[in-house]
Design a protein that fits this description.
heterodimer; A: 255 residues; alpha/beta; Rossmann fold; 6-stranded mixed β-sheet; 8 helices; 10 strands; 24% strand; globular; disordered C terminus; B: 695 residues; alpha+beta; 3 domains; 10-stranded mixed β-sheet
């Protein structure tokens, strides 16, 4: 099976010499279709920069990002706009729903942006609303919804165009534990039922335990990789915690 | 460190917010313009001729200053609000770092003072230069070859401009900063989405819109009534209906804008987002949209009326006599002309005039009656036989009341015609020509009467038959354009002397010798001659005179008083309304800026965002302009009915066309303003695109 996303020697440097900051350094990994991949790391490790590079929001300094055989750097700005909306879907930490649009209008926004057939988008909206349990809030404005409902509406918006890859940036960051578990179950369900490929950045070990594979980044460098296999989520969670403990205060970093 | 921060912030504000700084400059220029009005060439000139009227106008200047100040306060308030809103987060950070509120207040005050002083330093020279330019242009436009233009620099105007400007700026700052100081730090730091929850049901807004439209329709219908201006109650009702109708319309229109969204007609890219943005703008800014619309209405009305008044009062270039003398002390009218000639000769002033001739005007004195002296049944009959028209009816009505006409001496009138280079009249013994000043008629009425006169109708003058011949005469009899005759008969000299019984008024017209003042303009020559005439004490001898200069001065006064002030107010209203709308839109765009970032992440291109924002601007600014354009058309009509004297009512339709043309021109100005706002919006949206542009 061909990987959906292939990242090779990806580097990103901010600023000019001598005060340069290396956010990413020669990162290489692949994402297979239907995979639920997590990227973990402490603050400033470079995980959000990595996600932004994949989402074509930030231009990498070196290396390549190949999505379904197409090199991202070679795309025109028009093709990049289409890529951002159609090829990848983006789930924000703070939902980023438009306050003056109803839930329905928010979800259908990418469809209208990328001229999807109306009948098709309405059918997809129904499916997603039912699955994500947001049917009742479709005609409400975001400020009239709870945090969990907002994130599920945001998830529906990210999935409305059936993107090849769903990029989730700390999706549980602004939620309480109950709503966080709920959204993770829904994302996990989408991954299993619809074979949706998900790449999630998080520092929440609980949320990460829903993934099938986790990449750990430290100071812009790939540090470790965990695979879940047939393991129970609880056991996987314990293993994540161990790696995180090492990341946060491993003996190698004691001065 | 603190002063560095103030300096840096002040510089940054000016750089980032040109619109705000521009509005400050406009305020200063506008304020100086009205305050320096008394120093304008036209006003200085008028003050010599019509000092009472000019002084009365100048006493009204404080009222105009008051209006200007309150309007400019509105402008500065919104511009300041925009600037402070942008920096709310920054203020939160200062307070988080432990800055005391009083210190923050001092810092902001210092920043505002600095910006204000810079605006004054830049604005005042611009204002002085602009005032000079307008002074020169106005003088040239009204046809005055001004007697030596002098650069005027009005110190009191500058003093009051500085005081007034600082007062409104600091007043606005005080109100806004106290609003900010009441907010908690978390509110200052929080990202404001601009969403407000309190909303009334849609039907409520629907009713408001319908009521607003009905009120405006009622106001429009009332404005079409001719006598509206004469009934204070009705006028007040008209004003209230227009005001509340506009406010209600803009308050409720949010419900109407939702309809295309609900009807799912918005299939185009981004339509739902754009419509929701428009709806939000209208919802949050309905009051300022309504006020802006009313200001634009006022501006358009002022412009239309000002141009109309200017056009109707423009001094005619076609004048014949430069001077008209009258002598009140003569016992016999025969003595008037020789007396004046003697006085002028004795004072060596006769050489100044190329021509001096009497203009004898009197009434029929052969009878004691002052009614039914003239019977024009045949004229009326021939007019009646012409096709029915409004002009014919007016003419019939007017002529019926002309039964005691003025009489003009033929030889005097011929002298006038000769001086004007026109062919003279030849009348037989029992013939007369009709004189009618053009202020009392119009082209079509003159044509109708000429048609009737071409049949040489016979009328009865004090029982004697007189044949009316020739076309209607309308040359100005004396210099003073305010002295006009609605109807008179020009009679041969013998007949004139017979009917007047030697009892008539004598006006002596003088035409200045042009070469006398070679190298000087006519105005300069007249002005110099006036000084000499005043020097010989003509008044003491009982001789009064009116020069073309005084006559023009009077005309100019009406024109300047009517048009200068209205056009000035129009510009202020227009600038304020547009700046307020522009600032409000850009402020709201910044408040909701993150939405554009989200759209970029969802795959929107820069072109998509700009197209959406441009459509929002079209609606946000176009709605008030559209309502204002419709309202102003009716408003101008009401103003014309009120202001234009009956003698120019005939040309009202023509003036309405002038005003309509002005409204179209101003709509173009609005379009240009909208384009400027769109460019500003495009530049702002580009800041959200920066990461993409790197690629």
């Amino acid at each position: 099976m061909e990987p959906i996303l292939y990242i090779e020697n990806l580097s990103k440097t901010y600023g000019q010499a001598p005060s340069q900051t290396r956010a990413l350094e020669r990162i290489t990994f692949q994402v297979m279709p239907g995979e639920f991949l997590g990227i973990m790391g402490s603050s400033g490790s470079g995980k959000s920069t990595l996600l932004n590079c994949i989402a074509a929001i930030t231009k990498p300094t070196g290396g390549s990002i190949v999505m379904e055989g197409k090199k991202l750097q070679s795309l025109s700005s028009k093709a990049l706009a289409a890529y951002r909306g159609q090829t990848v879907g983006y789930l924000f930490q703070n939902f980023e729903l438009l306050d003056n649009l109803t839930g329905r209008e928010n979800i259908l926004l990418p469809a209208s942006l990328h001229s999807l057939v109306e009948k098709e988008s309405l059918l997809r909206l129904q499916q997603l609303a039912y699955y994500l349990e947001i049917t009742d809030v479709l005609d409400r404005f975001p400020p009239q919804m709870s945090g969990g409902q907002r994130q599920r509406v945001a998830a529906a918006r990210a999935m409305i165009l059936r993107p090849r890859l769903l990029l989730a940036d700390e999706p549980t960051g602004a939620l309480d534990s109950k709503n966080a578990k709920n959204i993770m179950e829904k994302l996990s369900g989408l991954n299993q039922d619809e074979q949706a490929t998900i790449l999630m950045v998080t520092h929440d070990s609980n949320a990460a335990s829903f993934c099938k594979r986790i990449l750990f980044i430290q100071d812009g460098v790939m540090f470790h990789e965990l695979r879940r296999g047939d393991e129970k989520r609880q056991d996987f969670y314990q293993r994540i915690l161990k790696v995180m403990a090492q990341l946060g205060g491993g003996s190698c970093h004691v001065l | 460190m603190f002063s560095d921060l103030i300096l840096r912030n002040s510089n940054r504000s000016r750089r980032e917010n040109g619109l705000f700084f521009g509005s400050l400059l406009i305020s200063i220029v506008a304020f100086y313009m009205i305050l320096s009005l008394s120093r304008q060439d036209v006003m200085v000139f008028l003050a010599q001729m019509e000092s009472d009227a000019v002084n009365r106008l100048l006493t009204m200047i404080p009222v105009f200053c008051g209006i200007t100040l309150s309007i400019l306060f509105f402008l500065i308030y919104f511009a300041c609000q925009y600037q402070l809103e942008r920096r709310k987060k920054e203020f939160g950070v200062y307070l988080m770092m432990g800055m005391h509120k009083s210190r923050l207040f001092t810092m902001l005050l210092a920043e505002h003072l600095l910006t204000g002083i810079l605006a004054l330093l830049l604005g005042l020279p611009v204002a002085v230069l602009l005032a000079e330019l307008i002074s020169l242009v106005t003088a040239r436009l009204v046809g005055m070859q001004i007697i030596g233009h002098q650069f005027t620099f009005s110190l009191p105007a500058i003093g009051f401009t500085i005081a007034g400007f600082l007062a409104i700026k600091l007043g606005a700052f005080w109100i806004l900063s106290s609003k900010i100081s009441r907010q908690e730090i978390d509110t200052l730091l929080a990202h404001s989405s601009g969403y407000e929850k309190k909303q009334k049901p849609a039907w409520f807004y629907g009713i408001c819109t319908a009521s607003g439209v009905m009120m405006l329709a009622a106001a429009y219908a009332m404005s079409l009534q001719r006598r509206i201006w004469y009934e204070t109650g009705m006028l007040l009702l008209l004003f209230l209906l227009g005001l509340s109708g506009t406010m209600l319309l803009f308050y409720g229109i949010r419900a109407v804008i939702t309809l295309p969204v609900k009807a799912e007609k918005a299939k185009r890219k981004f339509s739902v987002f754009t419509l929701r943005q428009i709806q939000e703008n209208v919802r949050q800014q309905s009051a300022s949209m309504a006020i802006s619309s009313l200001l634009i209405t006022a501006a358009l009305c002022c412009f239309g009326a000002g141009i109309g008044i200017a056009a109707s009062n423009r001094p005619g270039g076609d004048h014949v006599p430069d001077y008209t003398f009258t002598y009140d002390c003569a016992e016999n009218p025969h003595d008037v002309f020789p007396r004046l000639q003697t006085v002028l000769r004795e004072n060596d002033l006769d050489s100044q005039f190329s021509q001096l001739f009497a203009m004898r005007i009197g009434y029929v004195r052969t009878t004691d009656n002052s009614h039914s002296v003239l019977q024009m049944d045949s004229v009326l009959e021939s007019l009646r036989s012409l096709g029915q028209s409004a002009d014919r009816d007016i003419l019939l009505h007017n002529l019926r009341s002309e039964d005691y006409p003025h009489l003009i001496c033929l030889s005097d009138y011929n002298n006038l015609l000769q001086a004007a280079g026109k062919p003279v009249l030849t009348l037989a013994e029992m013939e007369a020509a009709v004189y009618q000043d053009c202020d009392f008629t119009n082209i079509s009425r003159t044509a109708l009467l000429n048609k009737s006169l071409s049949t040489r109708p016979q009328v009865i003058l004090d029982g004697n038959p007189v044949t009316l011949t020739e076309e209607i005469q309308s040359a100005d009899l004396v210099t003073d354009r305010a002295i006009t005759l609605s109807f008179a008969l020009i009679l041969p000299d013998e007949q004139f002397l017979h009917y007047t019984g030697g009892n008539y008024e004598v006006y002596i017209n003088g035409i200045i010798r042009r070469e006398t003042g070679s190298g000087n303009s006519l105005m300069t020559t007249i002005s110099e001659l006036n000084t000499r005439l005043d020097g010989i004490g003509l008044q003491d001898m009982g001789i009064k005179y009116e020069s073309y200069l005084q006559n023009m001065g009077r005309q100019l006064f009406y024109m300047v008083a009517g048009s200068y002030i209205t056009i000035y107010l129009a510009i202020i209203f227009l600038v304020v309304a547009n700046t307020v709308m522009g600032v409000q839109f850009l402020m709201n765009q910044q408040k909701t800026g993150r939405r554009y970032q989200t759209l970029v992440c969802l795959g929107a291109t820069y072109q998509n965002l700009c197209a959406s924002a441009r459509r929002q601007i079209n609606w946000f600014m176009g709605l008030p302009v559209f309502v204002a354009s419709v309202s102003s058309f009716f408003g101008v009509k009401v103003l014309f009915t009120a202001w234009l004297s009956s003698r120019v009512q005939g040309t009202r339709e023509e003036m309405l066309w002038i005003s309509a043309a002005m409204i179209v021109v101003l709509c173009v100005v609005e379009y240009i303003y909208m384009t400027a706002i769109k460019r500003s919006s495009d530049r702002y949206l580009l800041t959200w695109m920066q990461p993409q542009r790197e690629e």
